[in-house]
């Protein structure tokens, strides 16, 4: 299993990328998932990139951004190429995005048709460079329900289209994450791991709250202390595929929580390996 931290976890902290990389290495993480805005702001400093990060024994697991699907096609392709170049500079072939700004049930047939067309164009652009577009399973997008996500994959029908499987948000949709994982398995390239204290607190992850410095963090809990059963999920996931995952923590005490979560994930995996022997 390859485990990454997300630079978005440090979005309200005064840490440099050097400090984050040094800490990630000290905690034996395998990689760093770069938030798109962080990657873009580092682009003018050629010192930072794949070779710099590999000196820490780390890799860039993914660039997580929000491609402008509501823009005209020329603007969208220009931004896609910009992000593609950044991804190449950091040595990753995975770019994450959301599809749409409304839930699948609220999206009209014509709106969906347009989004599918744009996603296919992005996939065609990235495919020529050996890169993949990872659509995240997320509320208020076309990947908010398992059926809609499966339909999206079929509608776009392109080898560059993959899934970033956010376990919590799949659980939020009302389906068991293990069932969804098994159905989406051929398309999953990455996992996001986070948890919540109760279903009533899920609004804490709404974009207008989670990105705000003054937003509430009530309900965010460490990975093995919430409603999603990660012991069950990871026990099943490790049997089905190699896992590339990021600990996506948005709350306080970032280093303490990430350190503890990573330690508990590794302990669980070690226990599973012992059982297999």
Automatic annotation (TrEMBL):
Domain of life from the UniProt record: Bacteria
Protein name, entry field: Sugar phosphate isomerase/epimerase
Pfam families: AP_endonuc_2
Domain Xylose isomerase-like TIM barrel: 23-260
Organism: Metabacillus halosaccharovorans
Keywords: Isomerase
GO molecular function terms attached to this record: isomerase activity
Stretches of the chain forming a coiled coil according to its record: none
InterPro entries: IolE/XylAMocC-like (IPR050312), Xyl_isomerase-like_sf (IPR036237), Xyl_isomerase-like_TIM-brl (IPR013022)
